[in-house]
Design brief:
Strand 6 and strand 7 form a beta hairpin. Helix 6 crosses helix 7. The chain is of the alpha+beta class. The radius of gyration is 26 Å and the shape is elongated. 45% of the residues lie in helices and 13% in strands.
Length: 397
């Protein structure tokens, strides 16, 4: 039995090891992408001198809208409880586009984009620097990543079974990494003990990651939870489809005309003096309502059809309480706490959090980073031990 396990473990590892190393390493680099990006570009995400009061949401959105092309509209805004942070404003296009704006001055500080290093790591992690899809054939990078990840599942399982069936020494002794008994012993211990320590995390990464690789796997995976797999990909897009579109007309010279109407609300004036209400006229009211109703909130996102709130203490920014509101007056019409949301929403959110290691906060993210780094070393130490075994007799361990 042990000989069969060893052969399966070896011959799955040899052809896929390099890809597994690249995928694990790039995944580890992405764990703290947000924090590192904000450290490199603080001027985009933070305000140097926060003022006492931010501009009204309506004034800020109208001011920002004047800088956008006519074909692009604002679909939402995300506000952090940290007053030193800029607002993130979501746009209708391109897909998932957003910009950051100083809430005290209305100045655009930058757009949401990956740093070149993290963009490379993401494409390496998902598609081995290839294309996400290929209309004329097979997206080989995506396929190789999926096949190698699937192989990793069996490599980890056979590795655990080999460890459990090893009767040559106590199981406890195989969990120690010796650093004073030579390099060969060190690499052996790192491969065995490191693999044992990282296995649960690596299995979680692989089993959830495969939902992005194969549609047949995604369907079966979600069927195990009694829900239907998401269509056209995985997860929920950051920006919702365009909802209520702003009615707006051009003046005789093609420019937009704005002013406050007699009712104190901001309006647009088009051809013939026709008046149109601003779609942001109730956003200030919604923001204040959410602040008062959610003491200690972390983040509030206002969209054209709903408001999402991340309460204090919630570890994932994707686990939001959702509020529906009446666009005519800004009154809250319905509340859907995260705990009461449908199973498919919870499962999809959980899959993403498990894959990124964010399900337990900063502790699990650190452990996920370490596990991914160990995962990147396992094929390399395995190759080294395999080549050494072919040249030299096995050491007495």
């Amino acid at each position: 039995m042990k000989k069969i396990l060893r052969k399966i473990h070896l011959w799955l590892s040899v052809p896929t090891g390099i890809v597994i190393t690249l995928v694990c390493f790039s995944g580890a680099m992405l764990v703290f992408e947000k924090e590192l990006t904000e450290a490199v570009r603080p001027e985009v995400y933070f305000v140097k001198e926060p003022h006492a009061e931010a501009l009204s949401m309506q004034e800020l959105m109208e001011k920002l809208e004047d800088t956008l092309p006519d074909s692009v509209s604002i679909t939402g805004v995300t506000v952090s409880s940290d007053k030193s942070r800029t607002y993130q404003v979501s746009l209708s296009k391109p897909r998932r586009a957003s910009i950051y704006v100083n809430p005290y001055t209305g100045e655009i500080t930058g757009r949401s984009e990956r740093l070149p290093f993290f963009d490379t790591m993401f494409r390496l992690h998902r598609w081995l620097l290839g294309k996400s899809s290929n209309d004329n054939g097979i997206a080989w990078g995506k396929l190789l990543t999926g096949v190698s990840t699937l192989a990793l599942v069996f490599i980890l399982i056979t590795g655990i079974l080999m460890w459990l069936t090893n009767r040559n020494k106590p199981l406890k002794a195989s969990l120690v990494i010796h650093v004073n008994k030579g390099w060969r012993r060190f690499w052996h211990d790192l491969h065995v003990a490191g693999g044992i320590y990282a296995t649960l995390f690596l299995l979680a990464f692989a089993l959830t990651g495969l939902t992005w690789s194969f549609s047949w796997y995604r369907s079966g995976f979600y069927a195990c939870f009694g829900i239907e797999a998401p269509h056209g990909g995985h997860g929920v897009a950051r920006n919702q489809p365009r909802g209520e579109q702003r009615e707006e007309h051009k003046g005789e010279h093609g420019e937009r005309h704005h002013r406050f109407g007699p009712d104190g609300e901001y309006h647009s004036w088009g051809w013939g003096g026709r008046m149109h209400r601003s779609p942001y006229r109730h956003w200030d009211k919604l923001l204040e309502t959410m602040k008062k109703g959610n003491h200690g909130w972390q983040q509030i996102s206002i969209k054209k059809d709903a408001v999402e709130v991340v309460p204090q203490g919630r570890r994932s920014l994707r686990a939001t309480d959702q509020y529906s509101y009446d666009r005519r007056n800004g009154d809250i019409t319905d509340v859907l706490p995260y705990d009461a949301q449908t199973k498919d929403v919870k499962v999809r959110s959980a899959v993403y959090r498990v894959h990124t290691g964010s399900w337990g906060g900063i502790i699990t993210r650190i452990l996920s980073f370490l596990a991914a780094i160990i995962g990147a070393t396992l094929p390399l130490t395995g190759y080294w031990l395999w080549f050494r075994r072919k040249r030299l007799p096995s050491p007495r361990l």
